[in-house]
Specification:
five-stranded mixed β-sheet, three-stranded antiparallel β-sheet, alpha/beta, D-Maltodextrin-Binding Protein, domain 2, 321 residues, globular, 2 domains, 13 helices
Length: 321
């Protein structure tokens, strides 16, 4: 009995010490329910961070500059899934941000839609109309600009915020073409309420470009580098876990519960719209293209090269191939 009590007390003491020494990371994540925004939450639910002595606090944003702003002001240590264009703009204005990993390479998941009774049927029909993106500097902002340029269509890009707000504006006629990411809208498609006009995959010029990145506050990166490195390692391992067998059933069930959709819809979303290769974190691809676009769209004031941007990137963890 005495030995058992001693072991129990020792275990409790170790747990107390572990909790006291755990490094806290505040992490801003956009758009809860988006597949590629969920890996931090999955890892939390699985207890992966606790096992590595990291205390992660998530707070959700509506995306775009709102997410990036949390790191720029020091309110968050890490901000996930930021439009690379916005990060480039912030860095060259002197913001204390560093890219710690790619988040999405290529464009796959976003689609643009109209109400089923809209006369707009193809990308060319958007001429002179309004087309949505989330927030200035976001990846959807960059996608819309590239889409219109590639197809030589003169339409007006409009920031509409998150998915529910965009859906309301589209269905009420405030904007002509809305944006969305599955599983949002999949049921409406099946019910014949909306119609897809164009998909991100149709933007050929962006398929080898990292359009979203994960960033850290520079002070946090200097003072909490070991914890941030562990954090990114766990994110990479969680991605691997979710894609086991193509789509891990346990992960699909977890995602379905968060996104509030049936498991088959969650599974279809992942398999049809999110190839695992797009989620590599090791390399920011197509950086020069992004820098040129930042100048073209007046996010920076003078031409920059990859050499000029070298200090912006600090990849803290690269998974073994």
């Amino acid at each position: 009995m005495g030995l058992r009590i001693f072991v129990l007390l020792g275990t409790l003491l170790a747990a107390t010490i572990s909790a006291a020494t755990a490094e806290t990371l505040k992490v801003a994540v956009p758009q809860r329910g988006f597949w590629d925004s969920e890996f931090v939450e999955f890892a939390l639910l699985r207890g992966s961070f606790k096992k590595e002595g990291i205390d992660v606090e998530i707070f959700w944003t509506s995306g775009g500059s709102e997410t990036l702003q949390t790191v720029m002001t020091g309110s968050a240590d890490i901000a996930m899934s930021n439009g690379t264009l916005g990060v480039v703009s912030a860095y060259f204005k002197g913001a204390p941000v560093r890219i710690i990993g790619a988040e999405m390479t290529g464009v796959h998941e976003v689609y643009w839609y109209v109400p089923a009774n809209s006369p707009i049927k193809t990308i060319n029909d958007i001429e002179g109309k309004t087309i949505a993106f989330s927030r200035p500097g976001s990846s959807t902002n960059l996608m819309v600009l590239n889409l219109l340029k590639e197809y030589k269509v003169n339409a007006k890009p409009v920031s509409t915020g998150g998915l529910p707000a965009t859906h309301t504006q589209v269905m009420s006629g405030q904007i002509d073409v809305g944006w969305a990411v599955p599983p949002f809208g999949v049921q409406d498609m099946s019910d014949g309420k909306i119609r897809v006009v164009v998909k991100a995959g149709d933007i050929k010029g962006m398929q080898d470009q990292s359009i979203r990145v994960n960033v850290a506050n520079l002070n946090s990166l200097n003072s909490k580098r070991d914890a941030i490195t562990k954090f990114m390692k766990i994110v990479a391992e969680t991605i691997d876990w979710c894609y086991e067998g193509g789509a891990n059933p346990e992960c699909m069930k977890m995602y379905a519960e968060i996104a509030k959709v049936p498991v088959p819809v969650a599974t279809r979303t992942v398999k049809d719209f999110f190839p695992k290769s797009a989620l590599q974190i090791s390399e920011v691809k197509g950086l020069q293209k992004t820098l040129d676009e930042a100048l073209q769209y007046k996010r920076i004031t003078e031409k920059k090269t990859e050499k000029d941007a070298a200090g912006m990137i600090d990849i803290v963890y690269k998974p073994k191939m």
